[in-house]
Amino acid sequence: MYQALYRKYRPKTFDDVVGQKVIVKTLTNSILNNRINHAYLFTGPRGTGKTSIAKILAKIVNCESLDHVTPCNKCVSCTQTNNKQNTDIIEIDAASNNGVDEIRELRDKVSLVPSFGKYKVYIIDEVHMLTPAAFNALLKTLEEPPKHIIFILATTEPHKIPSTILSRCQRFDFKKISVDDIKERLLYVCKEENINITEEAISLIAHLSDGGLRDSLGLLDQLTNYTLDKIEVSDVHAVYGTITNNEIKELLTKIYQGKLSETFNLIKEYDEEGKNLTKIIENTIEFLKNTLIYFNNSSYFDNDIEKLMYEEMCNIVKEEDIYSSIEILLDSIKNSKNTNNTRLICELAMIKIFELKNKKNIIEPQKEIPILEEKKKIVAEKKYDKKELSDDTKDKLDELKKIRITNTLAKFDKKELITFKDNLDDIKELLMDPTYSSNVSLILDGELKAKGDKNLIFVYKIKNLEECFNLSLIEIENILKKVYNVDYKPIAVSEEEWEPIKVEFNKNMKSKNKIYEYKDENISLDDIFKNNENVEKSNVNTNEIEEMFEDLIVYN
Asked: With contact defined as beta carbons under 8 Å apart, do 231 and 196 qualify?
């Protein structure tokens, strides 16, 4: 049966361990000086050697004929360990054995003496998954274990471990393995396995693995199945779902030159090819970082091809725009963790970058135009007096707003909210249509906070945008009807209004009070706006919103 590379080349001695010299040296000296601790805590990123070193340490302390710190592999204990039959080394996966009963069973067995070796070693992997009760059950045993017991706890999330446990362990923080160390190990594995691969491909694998040797070996394993020929850089990008630096430069060039449609087409193409859009965003951030370095110190780069790429990018974008772009992309990575639609997050990030510098900025830099955020600020600062509306219109609109908020909360469904949020980007198809573009942009600028049956609540940080939304309800309902073929009844509230509504709703949900009763709308939108349709509504919605988004909308 075929054995995965990361298993086949798992370190068997301290000499095989890659990139953890300080930890290896400390453990080696503790063994040689017979100062073995009763409890260790190994923390650090995945694939950096925590479990491997735990197994090596367990094997060493029980070896009967130890050569310095190298196991003999001949004694009973070593033989049993190699055959995975050593009853003195107990591995526990805390992710699936995290209850208090399992830990109590462990506590009851620690008094049993070892079968072959000197120590009974308990390796508890993903120890942060233990329940609080399980940690409490482990605490006393961990503090005063029998002399023949060693605990080795391993975790990627030490902040989740109680301080009472942490204080009783000797802690070792595993660092990410350097790119050079990973490259060296990959070259060794490729030589041993007769894998035909370019040095550039190995460098890329080492870089993409983000300090995890296991991840790099897993990717190499996958690549050997992907191509039977020589593994090239393009193969690595194809399997890992990333794109080359030239493709990143092409993407950034299009967006900085104001070619929004072409940028969206590229993102769509990458998405349909199964590319990892989150990784593409991360690589784009690194590309921009390197461009910043080139701005300040071009001699940092030795590769002439790289120099040419970054020089071309420096001629396209200003240094201050790069800082803003990186901030936008970093925010998009955070947002991508809360949704399955990474394409939407990526597209929105590109729109925001587009706002920083559009085509006009590059062709005619002397004629700078305000970016979208500035236009939003201008609108937000304008005095919009609701008294311009007739008293009758204001009263009817306020009444409708209360009814729609109550009806949304009366039939609130969290699952429906999540589903509709995921599908909300479907309205973007109308961005290119001048008939709908301004109101589509207005919808996307808010945040959908609640959904109950056909009722929707959007929340806006800027008060004027919330007012614009409610004064455009007829057009917005038509857009939602056109895209989803459902007669949705939306309403907008400001962030300031939403907070007390949310607090009250959560309070009543916890106490199971049903204070929200669904009411039929006894007023139509036509009745509300019939007296103000050609004055206030038109002025606020059509003029101001169109002005805000005119540079964002691209017409085919």
From this structure: yes
